[in-house]
Specification:
Structural class: alpha+beta
CATH architecture of the largest domain: 2-Layer Sandwich
Shape: globular
Distance between the termini: 39 Å
Strand content: 15-25%
CATH topology of the largest domain: GH92 mannosidase fold
CATH superfamily of the largest domain: GH92 mannosidase domain
Largest sheet: 9 strands, antiparallel
Number of domains: 2
Number of strands: 38
Mean pLDDT: 92
C-alpha cells in the first residue's frame, strides 16, 4: 500500500556478469501516495509468513465511538511522514485498503522501564523512540534503523516463519526488551480476545494471541528465544474490564511469574548490557501451536549468526528476481524490480515446517502434496497477479489453487474464498473471483489437481443464493438497487466469474454447466442503459434508478469506482460490449473521453484510497476495475491508442520516488500490471489463454520459465518517443492480430516488437 519511503536494496546474483549484477540494485520498496501508509518497509522472504517491520504510531480505529479516518493511513503499520517508531511487529499486509495483523510488537529500550508507548509528540514519555530516515536502511530481507532516544541500533531479518532481531546497545546500562501483545494494526477495544505467555526458561518464551478483527477467529502462536539470559521479567495487564479473575490472585503475577494470561498484556525482559553489546531474538510464528512455533524456529534458524540469516534471506530474493531479467532505462529498472519484489510478498505461506496448518473449521490439518497459503486479496489479484504467477510461478500458483480448494472443503458455507485471511474469510469486496484464478490455472494447464472437483466448487460457490445478492442475480439476471448499494458492481463481476466457470466446463466437456454459465455471463447487459451508454443501477421493477451521476462513486451501485470505469467491465466479451455501446467509433470517443476528462475536486472527497495522482482524466488506475481498459482500443481497430495509453500510464502511475505508486499496491496487483505492461502484453480476461498486446517499455527481457524454457521479449528501437508498434514477430513469424497465447510463452521463444514514433493505422 502507500505512504512515502525511499528504501534501497542492493542484491548481487552469483554467476551473473557485472552488468547483470547492476540490475538488481534497483529494487526499492516504493510505498505509494503520501496520503496512504500501506506498504511495510521491513524484513521478509518471498511469500513469507513473517513480515517483520516497524510500526510508527498507535492510532485507534475509532474516536468517540466513530471511525477514525486517520487509521486508514496505517494499514501496514508504517508511515514515512512519522517521526517515531513504537516497535517492530511480525505480521503485516502489503498494499491493502483495510487492515489487521501487527502481531507481537517488540521494542528495545534502556534506562528506567516504561511500559506504555507514549505519544508521537513526546516520545520520551514512553518506550517509543524518535528516528531519522538518514539512519534507516531497507533491503529485501533486511531492515536497519537507529532508535535515537536510547541510541540503539535495530536490525531485522527473517526466514519464512521466523523473524530475527539484532539490537546493539551503545552504552552500558540496564536494558529492556518490551513484548507488547496488545499492539496491532487497526486497534479497538475488544479486538484482543485473549493472550497467553509461558516463560519456559531464562531464554525461551512461548504463547499465543487471539484476535477478533477483519478475521474474527484468528489465533497466532509464537516462540521467542533470546541470545542472552534475561535477569528478570514481568508483565502488566491493562484489561480493567474483567470482573472475575479466579484464584490466580493468590500469586503476584506482575514480576517473575512464569505463566500469565489476559486480554491486554505487555511483557518486559531485563538485561545488563555492556557498551555495544548485541542482544539477538529469534521469534517464530505458527498457526497451530506453541510446539510448532518452536519447531519452526529450530528448523529455520539453528544458530545465532544474524548475518548468515540475512544472507540466506537475500539469496531467497535473488532466486526469485533472476527469473526475469530486463534491459531498460534506469527508472524502468527501478520500477520493474520493485514491482517484482512487491508481487512476491503475498499470498503468504500458512503452513508450518511439518506441513500442519489451522483450517477454517478451526481444526488442525496437514497439507499433503502442497504448501498452504493465505492472504488472498482476490478482487485485486485475480486480474494480473495470479496470471503472472501462471507464467513465472506456476508451481506456487498450483499450491495456491490447492489452498483455495482446502478452504472450500473446510468452509461451513461450502464456498471458495472471497478474501482468505488466517483460517478465516473476511468476505471483503465484490464477486467470487477465486473462480477466475482457478479457471485461469486450469485453462493454462497450471493446476495439477482434480479439475472436476474444482469446477464443482466453483458452481456451488456461484449458486450460494444468500451471499451478496446471488439469488436475485440468478432469478432476475441482475441485482436490484433496493437490495444492494453495489448492485451494478456485483452483477458485472458475477457475469465475468460465470464466464470463467463456463471456460472450465468447456475444457472438461461439461456441456450442461457450460450452457448455464455462459448464459449467466451475459447478465451484464441487464445493467447497460443504451440511452446513456453507461452501466446503471436497476430497480426491482426493471426501471433504471433515478438521480444518476456518472462521475460519483457513492450511491450509484459501484464499489471503488464510478460508471465511467465500470461501464467497460466486460473483459470476457469486449466485442459484445462494443456492439452494445454503438460500435467502434462511439467506443473510441468514449475511451478517449475517459482518459482526457477533468474530474472535479468533489470526486476526491468521496474516497480515502485514491488521490488525484492516481487518476488520468477519469481513468482510475489506483483502483483495479479499469486495469484492462487501455487495452480495449485493440478491439476497435485503434491499437496505437492502446500503445500510447499504456506507455502514458506506465510513466504517470509508477515512478522511482518515495511516493511512486498512484494507489494501493493491493497485494501485488498494481505491480503485476506494471510488469505485464512493461513486457508488452496483458491478460485482459483471465480464464482465457490469450494476452492482449500493448507497447513494451523494456528494451529486452528474458523470462526463465519453470519448465526450463526461455521466453524473450525484444523491443527494437525502443525509446520514450517510440511508443508505437510497427510490427510484431513471434519466433520470426508475423503476429497478424493483437494478441498472443499462453502456449506461445511457455513453449519458449522470442517476441520481437519493432517500435516507431509514428502511429500504425
Amino acid at each position: 500500500m502507500k505512504s512515502k519511503i525511499l528504501l534501497y536494496t542492493f542484491l548481487l546474483i552469483p554467476g551473473f556478469s557485472l552488468a547483470q549484477n547492476e540490475l538488481v540494485k534497483y529494487v526499492k520498496p516504493i510505498i505509494g501516495t503520501e496520503k496512504m501508509g500501506h506498504t511495510f518497509p521491513g524484513a521478509t522472504v518471498p511469500f513469507g509468513a513473517v513480515q517483520l517491520s516497524p510500526d510508527t504510531d498507535t492510532i485507534p480505529y475509532e474516536v468517540g465511538g466513530k471511525y477514525n479516518g486517520d487509521v486508514y493511513r496505517y494499514c501496514a503499520g508504517y508511515r514515512y511522514e512519522d517521526k517515531t517508531i513504537v516497535g517492530f511487529s511480525h505480521t503485516h499486509f502489503s498494499g491493502t485498503g483495510h487492515s489487521d495483523l501487527g502481531d507481537f510488537l517488540i521494542m528495545p529500550t534502556q534506562g528506567p522501564l516504561q511500559m506504555n508507548p507514549g505519544t508521537a509528540a513526546n516520545p520520551m514519555s514512553g518506550f517509543r523512540s524518535a528516528f531519522s530516515h538518514d539512519n534507516e536502511v531497507a533491503e529485501a530481507g533486511y531492515y536497519k534503523v537507529k532508535l535515537d532516544d536510547d541510541d540503539i541500533l535495530a536490525e531485522l531479518t527473517a526466514t519464512k516463519r521466523v523473524g530475527m532481531h539484532q539490537y546493539t546497545f551503545s552504552k552500558p546500562d540496564e536494558a529492556h526488551i518490551i513484548l507488547d501483545l496488545m499492539s496491532g494494526v487497526y486497534n479497538y477495544d475488544g479486538k484482543n480476545v485473549w493472550t497467553y505467555v509461558r516463560v519456559v526458561n531464562d531464554t525461551l518464551v512461548t504463547g499465543y494471541r487471539q484476535t477478533n478483527g477483519w478475521a474474527r477467529t484468528r489465533t497466532v502462536y509464537f516462540a521467542m528465544s533470546f541470545s542472552k539470559s534475561f535477569k528478570s521479567y514481568g508483565q502488566k495487564n491493562y484489561d480493567g474490564t474483567q470482573p472475575y479473575k479466579g484464584f490466580w490472585r493468590k500469586f503476584d503475577q506482575t514480576k517473575n511469574f512464569p505463566e500469565v494470561a489476559g486480554k491486554d498484556l505487555r511483557m518486559y525482559f531485563d538485561f545488563n548490557t555492556e557498551a555495544n553489546e548485541k542482544i539477538k531474538i529469534k521469534f517464530a510464528l505458527s498457526p497451530v501451536s506453541q510446539d510448532n512455533a518452536l519447531e519452526n524456529m529450530r528448523t529455520e534458524i539453528q544458530g545465532w549468526d544474524f548475518d548468515q540469516v540475512k544472507k540466506a534471506a537475500q539469496s531467497d530474493w535473488e532466486k526469485e528476481l533472476i527469473k526475469l531479467k530486463i534491459d531498460a532505462a534506469e527508472d524502468e529498472k527501478i520500477n520493474f524490480y520493485t514491482a517484482m519484489y512487491h508481487a512476491f510478498i503475498s499470498p503468504t505461506i500458512y503452513t508450518d515446517v511439518n506441513g500442519e496448518y489451522k483450517g477454517l473449521d478451526q481444526g488442525v490439518h496437514k497439507a499433503e502434496g502442497f504448501v498452504n497459503y493465505t492472504t488472498f486479496s482476490l478482487w485485486d489479484t485475480y486480474r494480473a497477479l495470479h496470471p503472472f504467477f501462471n507464467i513465472i510461478q506456476p508451481s506456487r500458483n498450483n499450491d495456491m489453487v490447492n489452498s483455495m480448494m482446502a478452504h472450500y472443503n473446510q468452509s461451513a458455507l461450502n464456498m471458495l474464498p472471497i478474501w482468505s485471511h488466517y483460517a478465516n474469510d473476511n468476505w471483503c469486496m465484490s464477486g467470487y473471483h477465486s473462480v477466475s484464478v482457478i479457471a485461469d490455472a486450469i485453462v493454462k494447464g497450471v493446476y495439477k489437481g482434480d479439475a472436476g472437483k474444482a469446477l464443482d466448487a466453483c458452481v456451488r460457490t456461484a449458486n450460494h443464493r444468500n451471499y451478496e445478492g446471488i439469488g436475485e442475480y440468478i432469478d432476475r439476471g441482475y441485482i436490484s438497487a433496493e437490495h444492494s448499494g453495489v448492485s451494478v458492481s456485483n452483477t458485472l463481476e458475477y457475469a465475468y466469474d460465470d464466464w470463467c466457470i463456463a471456460q472450465i466446463a468447456k475444457k472438461l466437456g461439461r456441456k450442461d454447466v457450460y450452457d448455464t454459465f455462459i448464459k449467466r455471463s451475459g447478465s451484464w447487459t441487464n445493467n447497460f442503459d443504451s440511452a446513456t451508454g453507461f452501466m446503471r443501477p436497476k430497480m426491482a421493477n426493471g426501471s433504471f434508478k433515478n438521480d444518476f451521476d456518472a462521475l460519483s462513486t457513492h450511491g450509484q451501485g459501484f464499489i471503488e469506482g464510478n460508471t465511467w470505469n465500470y461501464s467497460f467491465f466486460v473483459p470476457h466479451d469486449p466485442a459484445a460490449l462494443i456492439k452494445k455501446m454503438g460500435g467502434a467509433k462511439k467506443v473510441g470517443l468514449r475511451l478517449d473521453s475517459l482518459f482526457t476528462m477533468h474530474l472535479p475536486d468533489k470526486f476526491f472527497a468521496e474516497t480515502e484510497d485514491i488521490t488525484r495522482e492516481g487518476i488520468i482524466g477519469g481513468y482510475v488506475h489506483g483502483n483495479e476495475p479499469a486495469h484492462h481498459v487501455a487495452y480495449l482500443y485493440n478491439w476497435i481497430g485503434q491499437p496505437w491508442k492502446t500503445q500510447e495509453r499504456v506507455r502514458m500510464i506506465l510513466k504517470m502511475q509508477y515512478k522511482p520516488t518515495p511516493d511512486g505508486l498512484g494507489g494501493n499496491d493491493d497485494c501485488g496487483q498494481m505491480s503485476a500490471w506494471y510488469m505485464f505492461s512493461s513486457l508488452g502484453f496483458y491478460p485482459v480476461s483471465p480464464g482465457s489463454d490469450e494476452y492482449a498486446l500493448g507497447s513494451p517499455s523494456v528494451k529486452k527481457a528474458v523470462l526463465h520459465l519453470e519448465n526450463g524454457k526461455r521466453f524473450a521479449v525484444e523491443a527494437v528501437d525502443q525509446s520514450d518517443k517510440n511508443v508505437y508498434v510497427k510490427q510484431v514477430l513471434l519466433n520470426g513469424k508475423v503476429v497478424a492480430g493483437h494478441s498472443i497465447k499462453h502456449s506461445d510463452i511457455v513453449a519458449g521463444g522470442t517476441l520481437k516488437f519493432f517500435m516507431s514514433n509514428k502511429k500504425r493505422q
